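Deliverable D4.2, example record:
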Amino acid sequence: MQHFLWGKLVLVLVAVVAVLQVVHLILLSRLEAKHHHHEEQDDRSVSSGNEAEAAFASLVRSLHQGRVLDTSGEYQLVPNLAPGTRQPPPRPPSTVPDIALVSQCSFNHLHHIVPMVQRWQGPISIAVFAEDHELSEALWGIAGLRLCYSAIRHNVSFQLVSPLPAGGRPPLTVPPDPSPPCQIPSPEANQQKNNYAGKRRFPNNLLRNVARRGTSAEFVLVVDIDMLPSLNLRQDFYDFAVKSRLFSETHHEDKTVYVVPAFEARETVTPPRTKSELLRLADGGDLRPFYIELCWKCQVHTDYEAWQKEPPSSGLAPLFEVLWKDPWEPFYISRNSVPFYDERFKQYGFNRISQVCELHVAGYKFSVLNNAFLVHRGLKTTASFHETKDLDQERNRLLFRQFKTELREKYPESSRRCY
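Output generated by the structure prediction step:
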């Protein structure tokens, strides 16, 4: 009898300890969340003009010390303008077992990084483009983001690209009448400023390559700056990669890329975080497949119908494979060793599909993930493009024909073609 009572007492004590541990973890997580919120608020409230000017001056020094020319001799690159303080520097061919979000933008789209960094919570590499007369504003904007958002300072690595100036460049100084360092422009304030509008042949593929080279992560997800990934995508893919031994050396030659279906949502709704939220928005008519109005054939092979019929589940896994067909241009997670983008493509048209086409010819497989997705904020319509879109597209169409011919010479053993 006494032994029985002692046994029950031990069980009760074990239960009490377990409950206390759970309570401790809950209190700890709340304390950390409160500290994180407090840290962000402190960052934005104590930052002064003097701190912003000091941060700006530091970026100017980085620019002068690190600038190099691109292979065409047309652009000036600053590959490590402002590395994330918690991100290891890239040392190819060595990599780190992680997944980085990679993007590019003109300097007046920097505000998109704030919600992006909240969703990703890990390494991000951004290549920023600025014309010569915009450099001061670009550096001021980057300095403000790093000063006012600790997550950006820790996780985002900035690279800079600008056209090579024809003559001498005047000293870079704080812009006249600068915005307060922590006053980030709203998306509405910049909604008319398209990446391509008013630019000298916007070098989007050069920017993508510069951003890819700015991370040490083994895997990358290259996205547009105005897209958001599903919540916890980085951690979910990391868990999947560990379980599937993708980080092991025996898998380094594996030619699989993992397609992340892309959608576009009305600006009036909160971008979905989970597949369940996404399906509800789709049922309500507030969300639709990416590019469905502009170029449905560019995305249709993702097979959105099959993806949406698959109920949400825990974890991440391949759902089905898709054989590439022209002109499919999916977004995907891949090793950073996949072919880079052809930097001859500038402005609008054929810049992404040319790289996806090369993956196909080079023998890569496209595997669609079950619960991962991207959301573009705002519906894509013809009115959202710059005036010279059609001229850009026709110019790049001719280049794409040449590119496809070159691929046959680059991969003579491949039976695959880009059609």
